[in-house]
Amino acid sequence: xxxxxxxxxxxKDYAERSRKKHKMQQAQTQAQPNKSQKSTEALKSIxxxxxxxxxxxxCSYLFIGMAYGMLMENAGFAWYYALLTxxxxxxxxxxxxxVTFLSGGASLLTVxxxxxxxxxRHAFYSISFIDDFRSMGKRKNYMxxxxxxxxxxxxxxxxxxxxxxxxxxxxxxVFSRTYWLAASAAGGILGQLIPYDLxxxxxxxxxxxVILFIDQWEQAEDHKPAIVGLGIASxxxxxxxxxSFMLPSLIxxxxxxxxxxxxxxxxxxxxxxxxxxxVQE
Length: 281
Known about the structure:
By secondary structure, this protein is mostly helical. It has 13 helices and no strands. Helix 2 packs parallel to helix 10, helix 3 runs antiparallel to helix 10 and helix 9 packs parallel to helix 11.
């Protein structure tokens, strides 16, 4: 009888453990799809936020990109040349200059130097996101090559403590480039079908930057960098003229802000050390 009771207890214990193990396996099996589903839902949410963020860029790129495609068609290039150039070059303002170079037979040296001077500002843009791009793995090269004035402004609007920061930056770059490619091709096609007048259409880009500036002004707590940028840009515009003020403005603004940041960090460190000394005394 004792052995029978002992056997029953062992069987019950074994059955109970088997039942618990089975439940755990079922829970794990159910949790995996739920985890995957949550991940998919989170990615959809990030894409949606990135799309909403890039709506001003889309509105601008549609007009500017179509204008570029129309200019390419007017210069004698088929729509797929506009698409190919946008895919390979992707520099916005320089692409409009490139239309003149391609149709006028400019030398490669002229094209290269002009591209360097017109787009050198992107080197300063990238300084702000070196750490972000380095930690993005295989996406790093794509992020570097798709950095534009608009994506830079959008990236600056995302908080440093945002957990979705890097994913948002990536999808904003993807959406922005897609808008430009689609608009360039559409402009080339429409340029063959309908008459057009491009007078004033380039103001869309100016309007876009005004909107982005206002958005960042409202979000930022410290307006000193914006004031410094406006003041130096205005002074350089007067001194260097409309065609040459961008590069010296960026150099001066970057230098002043770097010195200011270094000074603030040093002051903060000295203040912290003084406080620690007072506590120890």
